[in-house]
Design goal:
The structure holds two protein chains of two kinds.
Chain A: E1 16-26, H1 32-41, E2 56-62, E3 66-73, H2 86-89, E4 94-100, H3 104-120, E5 126-132, H4 144-153, E6 157-160, H5 169-179
Parallel strand pairs in A: 1-3, 1-4, 4-5, 5-6
Antiparallel strand pairs in A: 2-3
Chain B: E1 4-10, H1 14-25, E2 30-33, E3 45-46, H2 49-55, E4 73-74, E5 80-81, H3 85-93, E6 101-103, E7 106-111, E8 114-117, H4 122-127, H5 133-148, H6 167-173, H7 178-188, H8 201-218, E9 223-226, H9 232-243, E10 247-249, E11 256-260, E12 263-269, E13 272-281, E14 290-303, E15 316-320, E16 331-337, E17 348-355, H10 361-364, H11 366-369, E18 377-388, E19 397-399, H12 410-424, H13 431-434
Parallel strand pairs in B: 1-2, 1-13, 2-10, 7-15, 13-19
Antiparallel strand pairs in B: 3-4, 5-9, 6-9, 7-8, 11-12, 12-13, 14-17, 14-18, 15-16, 16-17
Helix pairs in contact in B: 1-9, 1-12, 6-8
Classes of the chains: A alpha/beta, B alpha/beta.
């Protein structure tokens, strides 16, 4: 099970750490930020404001052999008028496409986001479909079977989630972590370009070398 | 769109995106619009390659250039000084997290018909053919003086007041000859012409310090270049603005800037009107409020080989000082390649540019083109250099200047910082962003 807040192995040793860039996609107000907030901080706010000020979060998931560190990019609202920059997709190794099970339009839009990913992102990207707000089952309009069939056809991971109750939130990130290839070439968040990140008081060494050592 | 904003920003070129980011960070409610369906305006990187060919109405030969999507071709060539203003802005705003860079491998300068590497350390300086043995000693003394000179400590000035004496006098103090002056003023201080010689020495001293501090950061050269091209920079700052609440609309025509009593009140797109107190824009959105002050010629060249005599460098800059070729302004050659994910494997993009001085601008860049070896494809374009005629104090419309012919982003950043100050009445406070936007790493 994914353990929050530490990259320490259960037996006390530090495993191989692989870093991956994960992007969130989906219509406004389907709960993208809430899912991340639940996953990263274990919190939920009923009246979460539109995304402000937190668009770059990291969280680790421990697997048998490796520790997967997600570098999570939120849309920062740029999806609202279809103004996401190519930079957003660049080097993304995983994506969660979110819809709201109580809103059919958001599911339709989710399928176009999947197409957008297939067009813009790396061909090897791992995509998960999340039917969020599963706690609102009495208002459901998108059937579980419909979404599951779509996911299967397109080779996507699929779960219904609830950021409110935490249902399947850790599990969907864990499923992605398991599916991601963990070799030298891939485990390097967003850094397919192999350049260096700039930091203050920079030393001589690049700060983003291969993470899988 | 039909809401009220503190400011509306028009155009997503680098300057407008930095401004948008700074304004959002400062708590302003921002609407940021571009008439194009892509980010970057003039400072975009064109992709795929097919797009570049069609922009210049040239038929692209099939199967010659690899995959078109592997290309990201800048329209305006520039490098970042590793210790310059743009790097400071990137680090302080956290935008650097979205980007990766590579050091430019070498910097060259043109002298008497051939190019020489700008030395980066004692070893290279000793073997350099740029100057004779005695001149090297004098030049070394000059550099040591510049390094030790502290602006706020007159004792370190060694009886030369850098504020009240010209650069010409400083050159005389160290008896540097004309060739060394050329090299110093153009390849190190990166002046575009010789106006600096009669100006206060401190201007040039600061620039030489910037060069050497930048060089000290990564070693190979003072220049950095972002992976996937310069077009990543505006996208990064746009994201910063969005994170702080900025609203983005691409592919949105701008039909009218609405004025009342000489002051801006909003922007109209079709039937929609967004209200605002201020507008920030590039010159193309307000043709009536700008004047043409010059022209810049730029030539994009696709090459299947590195530049001859650069030790097969995958990226480089060559400066042709004006005097060497009897001009008033320098010619710049910048080269990037597949290693920056801006070209298909094995390909290089060279850009030759200068400020236009004659009626035959293409001939003016010939000295640069001649250095490149065989050129597979050439795209030449000439753009007007526009400046605002209105300083915005009444109208509250703040207009940036076009991108100049300099090879780096220092003037770009100075323009942005000065616009920010004009519009808000205060200097940008870097501390506003630095601590709030922590990495939020939960480890």
């Amino acid at each position: 099970m994914a353990s929050r807040g530490t990259a320490q192995r259960p037996n006390g040793t530090q495993g191989k750490i692989c870093q991956f860039k994960l992007v969130l996609l989906g219509e406004s107000a389907v709960g993208k930020s809430s899912l991340v907030l639940r996953f990263v901080k274990g919190q939920f706010h009923e009246y979460q404001e539109s995304t402000i000020g937190a668009a770059f979060l990291t969280q680790t998931v421990c697997l048998e052999e490796t520790t997967v560190k997600f570098e999570i990019w939120d849309t920062a609202g740029q999806e609202r008028y279809h103004s996401l920059a190519p930079m957003y997709y660049r080097g993304a190794q995983a994506a969660i496409v979110v819809y709201d099970i109580t809103n059919q339009d958001t599911f339709t839009r989710a399928t176009t986001w999947v197409k957008e990913l297939q067009r813009q992102a790396s061909p090897s990207i791992v995509i998960a479909l999340a039917g969020n707000k599963a706690d609102l089952g009495n208002k459901r309009v998108v059937e579980y079977e419909e979404a599951q069939a779509y996911a299967e056809e397109n080779g996507l991971l699929f779960m219904e989630t609830s950021a409110k109750t935490a249902m399947n939130v850790n599990d969907i990130f864990l499923a992605i972590a398991k599916k991601l290839p963990k070799n030298e070439q891939t485990g390097n968040a967003g850094t397919s370009g192999q350049g260096r990140r700039l930091v203050e008081s920079e030393g001589q060494k690049p700060t983003s070398g291969n993470c899988c050592k | 769109m039909e809401e009220e904003y503190d400011a509306i920003v028009l155009g997503t070129g680098l300057k407008e995106c930095i401004l948008s980011g700074m304004l959002s960070v400062s708590g302003k409610k921002i609407l940021h619009i571009d008439r194009n369906k892509y980010y970057g305006g003039e400072s975009a990187s064109i992709t795929p390659l097919e797009e570049l060919f069609s922009k210049f109405n040239v038929t692209m030969p099939a199967n010659q250039y690899g995959k078109g999507r592997e290309w990201n071709v800048d329209l305006i060539p520039k490098f970042l000084m590793a210790n310059g203003l743009l790097v400071k802005l990137l680090i302080h705003t956290g935008v650097t997290r979205y980007l990766e860079f590579k050091s430019v491998e070498g910097s060259y300068v043109y002298k008497s018909g051939k190019i020489s590497k700008v030395p980066i350390d004692q070893q290279e300086a000793l073997t350099s053919d740029l100057m004779g043995i005695f001149e090297k000693r004098r030049f070394k003394n000059f550099l040591v003086w510049v390094q030790n000179m502290q602006e706020d400590d007159p004792k370190s000035w060694d009886n030369f007041d850098p504020f009240n004496n010209s650069m010409s006098l400083l050159y005389s103090k160290f008896s540097l000859d004309k060739n060394t002056q050329d090299f110093t003023g153009h390849a190190l201080a990166l002046h575009r012409n010789d106006d600096y010689i009669s100006q206060s020495a401190i201007i040039t001293i600061r620039r030489i310090k910037l060069y050497s501090d930048s060089l000290a950061r990564y070693g190979k050269s003072p220049y950095l270049y972002p992976m996937y091209g310069l077009g990543e920079l505006p996208q990064g700052f746009a994201r910063l603005s969005a994170i702080y609440g900025g609203t983005y609309m691409l592919d949105k025509p701008v039909d009218e800037i609405i004025m009342e009593d000489g002051k801006v009140t909003g922007v109209r797109s079709g039937q929609e009107i967004a209200k605002c107190k201020q507008v920030f824009c590039d010159p193309t959105y307000v043709p009536n409020l700008v004047k043409k002050v010059g022209k810049v010629i730029r030539c994009i060249c696709l090459l299947d080989h590195p530049i001859p005599n650069t030790n097969a460098a995958l990226s480089t800059q060559i400066i042709i000082p004006q005097k060497q070729v009897n001009r008033k302004s320098d010619i710049y050659v910048s080269v990037v390649s597949h290693t920056h994910q801006v070209a298909a494997k094995g390909w290089f993009i060279a850009m030759v540019s200068t400020t236009v001085e004659t009626d035959n601008p293409e001939l003016e860049i010939k000295h640069g083109l001649d250095l490149l070896g065989p050129i597979s494809q050439k795209f030449v374009y000439i753009s007007d250099y526009l400046e605002p005629i209105d300083n915005g104090s009444e109208s509250q419309i703040f207009i940036s200047s076009s991108y100049d012919a300099t090879t780096h982003f220092e003037t770009t950043c100075l323009d942005v910082l000065s616009i920010f100050k004009k519009a808000t009445g205060e200097e940008f406070d870097f501390n506003k962003v630095k601590h709030e936007l922590g990495d939020e790493d939960i480890q």
